[in-house]
């Protein structure tokens, strides 16, 4: 149990480092700014989501009962809102990759428009999470084991169908725009200015699509076949699986994007040297983030 929680804390710390690197990239490279701005704010929400899921796992396995119900209620609501931000935000990233294959890309994803897209994402996620506010969690002690039920059932189903609906929209938008971006890169590779990075970031989009397609399958199968052994196992440990899917964004952007790997490596080296007392306070810390690679 303790190693599992330690692993979760390490994953949150790793994702936080990735977000720091991404923030530096978006602040210093105007060409890359639109995509990395989207990733930065979605990443911040993902970190909050991961912390909420960590609490839900801890409450389920260790605390049990309704001792700290207000915190559990907030974290439960946050998991719904943050997941919708993740889905809608990653859909925007897929559209951004297709837009980046055109010279007018920065007109469609200017600073003001990117801010407007993010604002709309948060508003849509908040509106879609309203049913979760009215869910009631009832705790029961059965044979010495704590369990809980969520009521009313119709409200639980409504929230589930809203999430499934957004996921279906995402799985229509993200693959279509990723494929179209890939075709433009393949057919117009000499005329597309940013083709190299488009290749690698498309891999990031594909990894997210595959990962969350598995979650969509679970959500659908749980509605129609809740007694299936595999579905029951995933349901019992759902917070752990969802935690993995959320922090996967941080790992996939590192594995698929050279400039993020370089920035993360330099950040880790810098922090390590600072911890050993080998870094002078007069040295500029911005050298950590001098990452190379074309957008």
From TrEMBL:
**Keywords, ordered alphabetically:** Membrane, Transmembrane, Transmembrane helix
- Is this entry keyworded Lipid biosynthesis? no
The name under which this protein is listed is Serpentine receptor class gamma
Bilayer-crossing residues are 6-23, 35-55, 67-95, 116-134, 161-182, 202-221, 237-256
């Amino acid at each position: 149990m303790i190693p599992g929680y330690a692993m979760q804390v390490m994953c949150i710390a790793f994702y936080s480092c990735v977000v720091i690197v991404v923030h530096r990239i978006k602040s210093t490279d105007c060409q890359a700014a639109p995509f990395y701005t989207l990733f930065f704010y979605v990443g911040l929400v993902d970190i909050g989501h991961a912390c909420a899921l960590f609490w839900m796992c801890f409450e389920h396995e260790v605390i049990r009962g309704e001792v700290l119900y207000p915190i559990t209620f907030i974290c439960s609501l946050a998991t719904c809102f943050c997941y919708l931000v993740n889905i809608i935000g990653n859909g925007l990233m897929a559209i951004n990759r297709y837009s980046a294959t055109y010279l007018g890309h920065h007109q469609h994803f200017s600073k003001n428009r990117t801010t407007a897209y993010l604002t709309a994402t948060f508003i849509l996620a908040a509106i879609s999470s309203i049913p979760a506010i009215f869910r009631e969690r009832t705790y029961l002690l059965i044979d010495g084991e704590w369990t809980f039920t969520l009521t009313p059932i119709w409200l639980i189903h409504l929230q589930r169908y809203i999430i499934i609906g957004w996921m279906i929209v995402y799985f229509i938008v993200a693959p279509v725009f990723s494929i179209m971006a890939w075709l433009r890169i393949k057919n117009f590779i000499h005329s597309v200015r940013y083709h190299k990075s488009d290749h690698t970031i498309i891999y990031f989009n594909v990894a997210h699509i595959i990962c969350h397609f598995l979650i969509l399958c679970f959500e659908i199968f749980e509605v129609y076949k809740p007694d299936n052994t595999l579905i029951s196992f995933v349901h019992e440990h759902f917070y752990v699986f969802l935690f993995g899917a959320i922090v996967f964004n941080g790992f996939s952007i590192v594995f698929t994007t050279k400039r993020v790997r370089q920035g993360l490596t330099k950040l880790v080296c810098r922090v390590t040297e600072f911890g050993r007392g080998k870094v002078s306070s007069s040295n500029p810390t911005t050298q950590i983030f001098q990452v190379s690679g074309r957008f």
